[in-house]
Amino acid sequence: MALDPHVSRFLDMMALGGSGGIDLAARREGLRGLSKLAAAGLATGPVSVRDLTMPGPGGALALRLYAPEGETAGPGLVFLHGGGLVTGDLDTHDALCRTLCDAGRMRVVAVEYRLAPEQPFPAGLDDALAATHWVVEHAADLGIDPARLAVGGESAGAGLAARVCQEMREAGKTLAAQLLICPVLDIHGVGASRRDFARGYFLDEATIQGDLIACGPEALPNPRFCPLRETEMTGLPPAHIHTAEYDPVRDDGETYAERLTRAGVPVVHARHAGMIHFFYGLGRLVPRSRPILSEIARDFADLLRSPAPNV
């Protein structure tokens, strides 16, 4: 399918701004600005929002709890934002989390993990693991049914979520499910989508390589940094995996879906035609992304509400 026309206009707009040579501070500010622009005027139903803190491996860790108003204890999702492990925060992904909460009628706990290069890898992963364990322990206080608690994320955050599931399994603990949206699962990998969409599709190869360098010397091609390199896939939680047709990391998610399926893990995979990386965060600029994200949330919440979650 051809690029969605709104996506095409967005990419033209991005091209007018130039590319390359953008320092990290400018990139972080650019994501904040894009997030505000893309979310302006988007409305969800009533959602209760509460900022929390927890003790983390490197100090206090900020969390944000989203809850559908009027809902009693129900399913929950620990959400890890994207941004290449170097950008993003609770505010840049606020609209996305509100939509997941409202459309799925589930509680969402967003995590503001430490970013590279100030805090090199594995600081972000350590925070993601600590936050997930904390939510498990405090699920009742957060209004979450612990038997229906999942972890998920988008882009690099989805990669963290996948590794959290792997390490929770190794610790003998199992989550109900995992939600991976345009996941980056092997930043060291080279595949067809990385070649075909290396430039001009929002996330480009130069940015990917810059993020890899920023993550530091521990960002190695091993399962902790590249969950796709994990050799044992059995016993992982059921997965909903969403990829975009014009995304350089599309093959990561699709290969992971195939490997999980071969290992007997229930998988729902959708490739979204005409879309690019981060389409789900462009609601005002790419109107078709709004119903897609809402459908993602509803379908995933239905999995968590199923009679026999994987616990």
Q: In terms of topology, how is this protein built?
A:
Layout: H1 5-16, H2 24-39, E1 47-56, E2 59-68, E3 74-80, H3 94-104, E4 107-112, H4 123-137, E5 144-154, H5 156-170, E6 178-181, H6 192-196, H7 205-214, E7 239-246, H8 250-262, E8 267-276, H9 289-304
Parallel strand pairs: 3-4, 3-5, 5-6, 6-7, 7-8
Antiparallel strand pairs: 1-2, 2-4
Helix pairs in contact: 3-9, 4-5
Report what the structure shows.
With 311 residues, this protein is of the alpha/beta class. It has one domain: Alpha/Beta hydrolase fold, catalytic domain (Rossmann fold), CATH 3.40.50. It has nine helices and eight strands. An eight-stranded mixed beta sheet has the order 1-2-4-3-5-6-7-8, with helices on both faces. It is globular and about 50 Å long. The model has no long low-confidence stretch (mean pLDDT 95).
Structural class: alpha/beta
Kindly state the mean pLDDT as a whole number?
Answer: 95
Task: List low-pLDDT spans.
Answer: none
Q: Which strand order does the major sheet show?
A: 1-2-4-3-5-6-7-8
Specify Rg, calculated over alpha carbons: 18 Å
Overall 3D form: globular
Helices, by number, come to: 9
